[in-house]
C-alpha cells in the first residue's frame, strides 16, 4: 500500500484488536468478526485515501464492520438466538478507545489463551486476533508454511466453538491461574522474536514489538497485577539491549555488549516498573526476572555487576520457580561470584542434556577452567542443538579460539 493506503493499513493494524474484540462480543462468532473487519478494511481503502482518515477511525471501522456483519446475517438468514440478540441490541454509537472496548480486548485475550487450546494455537490466535498480524506474517515468524498456520488457526477457532470456551475474563478466584497462561503466551512470543529459531533473521523485532504492545495493553487493563508489570519490565529491559546483541551476524553476549548502544529510555521505564513491583511486595517469577535484568542494566560495565544481588534474586526465584532452567541461570551467577569450578559443579548435576544453553554454559565454564578438549566437545554439542544463526556463529567462534 502506498500513500493513503499506507495510512489505512497503519490505522487498521492499530485498531484491529479492539475491532475484533468488539465484534466477537456482539456476535459471538470469530469468523464473522474477521470477515466483517476485512470488509470494513476494503471500504476504508476505497474511501479514506480520497476523503481522509476520519477523526475517530476506530469508531468508523467498528460501525462499518458491524453494519457489514448484520447485512451478512440477514443475507444468509442465519438468525440463531445469538445473532438475533446482536441485531436487537444494535446501535450506531461511536467506538471509543476506552471503557467497554478495552474490556472486550481483555475477554478476547483470555479466550485466545484458554487452556483448552494447544500452546502453539494460543500464540497464533493471540497474534492474529489481537495483534492483527496476517496468517502469512505469523507463519513466517514461526517458520512454518502458511497453509499449516492457517489450519492451526482454523482448528483453534473450531475448538473454541465446539468446547464452548467462554468469552469472558475469569472470576477473581480463577484469574491468577489463567493469567499465568496469558503471560506465558506473551513471553513465548517475545522470546521467539528475541532469539528466533531457524535460518532467518536472528532477532525478529516485529515479534518482540508485538509482545511488548500486547503486554502494555494488559498492564493497562489489569493495573493491580504485579506480574503483568513484571513481565512488561522484563521485556523492556531485554529489548533495550537488542541493537547491541548481534554484530555482523554474530551473537554478542551481555558482558561483551556496547552498553552505550542500549536504549536508556526503555531501561528507565523498566526500572520504574520494577520499583512499582517492589512497592507492591507480591513477588513472582516475572518480577524477579525483571529485577535481575534491572541489576544488569544498572551496571555501567560488566565488571561492575552486583553478582551477589543477582544470586540473591535467583535464590528467591528458585523458591517461586524451582525448575532446572532457573537453577542453570543461578549457577551462571554463582560462577561469577564464587568461580567457574563452583558453577560447573552446580551445572553438571542438572538434568538438562537436551537443552542447548546447558551445553553452552558448560562450554564456557570448562573454557575458563582451561579444560579445552572438554570445552570443544561442549561447544560442539551446543552448536548442534540450537537453530539460531547468530548464536551458532558465536559458539563456533568461541570453539575456534580454543587451543
Automatic annotation (TrEMBL):
UniProt-listed SUPFAM superfamilies: Sigma2 domain of RNA polymerase sigma factors (SSF88946), Sigma3 and sigma4 domains of RNA polymerase sigma factors (SSF88659)
One of the record's GO molecular function terms: sigma factor activity
Pfam families for the chain: DUF6596, Sigma70_r2, Sigma70_r4_2
Keywords: Sigma factor, Transcription, Transcription regulation
TM helices/strands, residue ranges: none
Domain DUF6596 stretches: 178-276
The keyword Cell membrane is assigned to this record: no
GO biological process entries: DNA-templated transcription initiation
Gene3D superfamilies (alphabetical): 1.10.1740.10, Winged helix-like DNA-binding domain superfamily/Winged helix DNA-binding domain
Chain ranges of the RNA polymerase sigma-70 region domain: 14-77
Taxonomic superkingdom: Bacteria
UniProt name for this protein: RNA polymerase sigma factor
Limits of the RNA polymerase sigma factor 70 region 4 type domain: 109-160
Classification lineage: Bacteria, Bacillati, Actinomycetota, Actinomycetes, Micrococcales
Family statement: Belongs to the sigma-70 factor family. ECF subfamily.
InterPro entries: DUF6596 (IPR046531), RNA_pol_sigma-70_dom (IPR014284), RNA_pol_sigma70_r2 (IPR007627), RNA_pol_sigma70_r4_t2 (IPR013249), RNA_pol_sigma_r2 (IPR013325), RNA_pol_sigma_r3/r4-like (IPR013324), WH-like_DNA-bd_sf (IPR036388)
Amino acid at each position: 500500500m502506498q500513500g493513503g493506503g499506507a495510512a489505512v493499513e497503519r490505522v487498521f493494524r492499530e485498531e484491529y484488536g479492539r475491532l475484533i474484540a468488539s465484534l466477537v462480543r456482539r456476535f459471538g462468532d470469530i469468523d464473522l468478526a474477521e470477515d466483517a473487519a476485512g470488509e470494513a478494511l476494503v471500504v476504508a481503502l476505497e474511501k479514506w485515501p480520497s476523503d481522509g482518515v476520519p477523526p475517530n477511525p476506530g469508531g468508523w471501522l467498528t460501525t462499518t464492520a458491524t453494519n457489514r456483519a448484520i447485512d451478512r446475517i440477514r443475507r444468509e438468514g442465519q438468525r440463531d438466538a445469538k445473532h438475533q440478540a446482536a441485531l436487537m441490541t444494535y446501535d450506531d454509537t461511536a467506538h471509543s478507545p476506552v471503557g467497554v472496548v478495552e474490556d472486550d480486548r481483555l475477554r478476547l485475550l483470555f479466550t485466545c489463551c484458554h487452556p483448552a487450546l494447544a500452546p502453539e494455537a494460543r500464540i497464533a490466535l493471540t497474534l492474529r486476533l489481537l495483534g492483527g498480524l496476517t496468517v502469512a506474517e505469523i507463519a513466517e515468524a514461526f517458520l512454518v508454511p502458511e497453509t499449516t498456520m492457517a489450519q492451526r488457526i482454523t482448528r483453534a477457532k473450531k475448538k473454541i466453538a465446539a468446547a464452548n470456551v467462554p468469552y469472558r475474563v475469569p472470576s477473581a478466584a480463577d484469574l491468577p491461574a489463567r493469567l499465568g497462561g496469558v503471560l506465558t503466551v506473551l513471553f513465548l512470543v517475545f522470546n521467539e522474536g528475541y532469539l528466533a529459531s531457524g535460518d532467518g533473521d536472528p532477532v525478529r523485532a516485529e515479534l518482540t514489538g508485538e509482545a511488548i504492545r500486547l503486554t502494555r495493553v494488559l498492564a493497562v487493563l489489569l493495573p493491580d497485577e504485579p506480574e503483568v508489570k513484571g513481565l512488561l519490565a522484563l521485556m523492556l529491559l531485554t529489548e533495550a539491549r537488542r541493537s547491541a546483541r548481534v554484530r555482523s551476524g554474530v551473537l554478542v553476549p551481555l558482558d561483551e555488549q556496547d552498553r552505550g548502544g542500549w536504549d536508556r529510555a526503555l531501561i528507565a521505564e523498566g526500572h520504574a516498573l520494577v520499583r512499582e513491583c517492589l512497592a507492591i511486595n507480591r513477588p513472582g517469577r516475572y518480577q524477579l526476572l525483571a529485577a535481575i535484568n534491572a541489576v544488569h542494566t544498572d551496571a555501567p560495565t560488566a565488571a561492575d555487576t552486583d553478582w551477589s544481588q543477582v544470586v540473591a534474586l535467583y535464590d528467591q526465584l528458585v523458591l517461586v520457580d524451582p525448575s532446572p532452567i532457573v537453577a542453570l541461570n543461578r549457577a551462571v551467577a554463582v560462577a561469577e561470584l564464587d568461580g567457574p569450578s563452583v558453577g560447573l559443579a552446580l551445572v553438571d548435576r542438572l538434568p538438562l542434556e537436551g537443552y542447548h544453553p546447558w551445553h553452552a554454559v558448560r562450554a564456557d565454564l570448562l573454557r575458563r577452567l582451561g579444560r579445552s578438549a572438554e570445552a570443544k566437545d561442549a561447544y560442539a554439542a551446543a552448536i548442534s542443538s540450537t537453530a539460531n544463526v547468530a548464536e551458532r556463529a558465536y559458539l563456533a567462534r568461541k570453539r575456534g579460539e580454543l587451543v
